[in-house]
Write a structure and sequence with these properties.
mainly alpha
């Protein structure tokens, strides 16, 4: 799979400046991240001879970036 950097830049421009998730969505993202790490670190997964174009590490990084963006947005919010 070829990833065109120009396409990624275009996608990034389309995404909203700030990601704001509700508590349920945040909980699910955190659970996803934990499960992906557990799978990646399991002995069963390490035995697989599997080389996908996008790895579990890529998925973990993407989820963590979403969570970090949310944390960044939360820090910038004014409290009332």
């Amino acid at each position: 799979m070829n990833i065109n950097l120009h396409n990624l830049e275009a996608i990034n421009k389309v995404l909203p400046e700030r990601a704001i998730f509700n508590q349920n969505q945040l909980r699910k993202l955190k659970t996803c991240s934990r499960w992906l790490r557990e799978i990646q670190e399991s002995s069963e997964f390490k035995q697989l001879e599997y080389c996908p174009d996008v790895t579990l590490g890529d998925a973990i990084q993407a989820v963590n970036e979403l969570l970090n963006e949310q944390n960044h947005c939360d820090c910038g919010r004014e409290t009332r």
